[in-house]
Design a protein that fits this description.
single chain; mainly alpha; Fumarase C, Chain B, domain 1; Fumarase C, Chain A, domain 2; 3 domains; 5% strand; EC 4.3.2.2
Length: 460
């Protein structure tokens, strides 16, 4: 294996340890293995057809399946050698799918001579569209979704733990009606829960085709016109764990893949928004960060503890979303019935997933290090009593004061006021003593509405 220090991409270099869980789904070896799986299962499905003379015993079927179930780097190297240099009696194919076909031929069990049935009636795209979807589905369901759900669970725990911690909100960057830190984390937990569900749904909806060179089953029908090849294809594709695309050209329309990429981009946007907000809370000292022993925050400023996890996540999410947007747009177009430009593009799906995975890990690491500075939040609230203007004018409106908004605006807009200023206003109001006392009980830290209760809605 290439030394990570010599890798062209940081995904296989600096971040190799973080992206390695995707190797079984995103590497060239993984694509070879998935292609072998499709070819082997297709061969076995043909043997189950009464119309064909092909017979494969249970023992032979098990040995064929071991070609992909016991897949190794050495197997991948053989496939690559067939493609690039030639292997045994096979000349170099310069064709990756044909190399897989020959590999399966070379690994036929003893007593089986099914070379003419391997890849029977298929076009390369019949194999590739299924292989790519099996890999994308596995990568999302086995690697990315667990990470997203873990972040969502962390946010939910933070929301519940800090549901009663009052915090000054900011709209347009300016002081606004207070909230609680827990409620704000609940907003992100709920958003991530919804977008993660869309990712899961999109992965479950991936569908494949097996309809030949122009999507007409022409070769299959020419060989065996009495076989219901549409029913055969549907059963074969669904047995692989995918949905079925009944209408296609040579290319399986990639609207399903585009939907998956868009769904991931939506979840990433939630995390990107979270990263930006947490970064700002750290800069405001609303959140403290636990320093890791031995780490350096700055090469010149020894005191620094920087929010590097959230910054790294932000960068990787932005790169991932750029790639996902490109993929979603590109894979849904193909000249007439087929062109090959999407082949190299689809090889980069794993790169987009890798940037997602790095970002998810960094966000989770960052969340584990932050702790609310409740005293800072409280001091900020208590030094910004003007945010009570909303509550004051609303209560006065309730009492029939049509000029309440204007009265409070004149006192507070663009000004720094104190609670004493408000109390002086209350003493001059023509209101019942009960209303005056109600107004005097208002405090910035207590003016949070039902923020704490809203945390209970995180699962809706």
């Amino acid at each position: 294996m290439t030394d990570p220090l010599l890798a062209v991409s940081p995904l296989d270099g600096r971040y190799a340890s973080r992206t390695s869980p995707l190797a079984p789904y995103a590497s060239e070896s993984a694509l070879m293995r998935a292609r072998v799986q499709v070819e082997v299962e297709y061969l076995l499905a043909l043997s189950d057809l009464d119309a064909t003379p092909l017979e494969i015993s249970d023992a032979q079927a098990a040995e064929l399946r071991s070609c992909y179930e016991d897949w190794s780097t050495e197997d991948a190297q053989v496939v690559k050698q067939i493609e690039v240099d030639g292997y045994g009696d096979y000349s170099a194919t310069n064709h990756d799918v044909k190399a897989v076909e020959y590999y399966v031929r070379l690994n036929q069990p003893e007593g089986l001579d099914a070379a003419n049935w391997i890849h029977f009636g298929l076009t390369s795209e019949d194999v590739n569209n299924l292989a790519h979807r099996l890999l994308a589905k596995g990568a999302v369901e086995d690697v990315l979704l667990p990470e997203l759900r873990e972040i969502r669970d962390t946010l939910t725990e933070m929301a519940r733990e800090h549901r009663d911690v009052p915090m000054l909100a900011r709209t347009h960057g300016q002081p606004a009606t207070p909230t609680t830190f827990g409620k704000e984390m609940a907003v992100y937990a709920a958003r991530l829960g919804r977008t993660t569900a869309r990712v899961a749904s999109a992965a479950a909806d991936l569908s494949g085709k097996l309809a030949g060179a122009s999507g007409t089953y022409a070769a299959h029908h020419a060989a065996y016109p009495d076989v219901d090849w549409r029913a055969f294809a549907r059963e074969f594709v669904t047995d692989l764990g995918l949905g079925f695309t009944p209408l296609a050209s040579q290319v399986n329309p990639c609207d399903d893949l585009a939907a998956l990429f868009d769904a991931l981009r939506g979840a990433n946007q939630v995390l990107l928004d979270l990263d930006l907000d947490v970064w700002l809370y750290v800069s405001q000292r609303y959140l403290g960060q636990e320093a890791t022993e031995g780490e350096t925050g700055s090469s010149t400023m020894p005191h620094k503890v920087n929010p590097i996890d959230f910054e790294n996540s932000e960068g990787n999410l932005s790169k991932a979303n750029s790639d996902l947007n490109f993929l979603a747009e590109y894979v849904t177009t193909s000249r007439l019935q087929r062109d090959l430009s999407d082949s190299t593009v689809k090889r980069n799906i794993g790169g987009a997933f890798a940037h997602c995975l790095i970002a998810y890990g960094k966000t989770q690491n960052g969340l584990a290090k932050v702790v609310p500075n409740e005293h800072v939040m409280r001091e900020d609230l208590e030094s910004t009593p003007e945010i009570l203007g909303e509550a004051i004018q609303t209560i006065l409106r309730r009492e029939g004061d049509t000029d309440a908004y204007e009265r409070v605006k004149a006192l507070t807009r663009g000004k720094r006021v104190t609670m004493e200023d408000f109390h002086a206003l209350f003493d001059d109001l023509d209101v019942d003593d009960g209303v005056r006392e109600e107004l005097k009980t208002l405090t910035p830290t207590g003016y949070v509405g039902v923020a704490s209760d809203l945390v209970d809605d995180v699962d809706e």
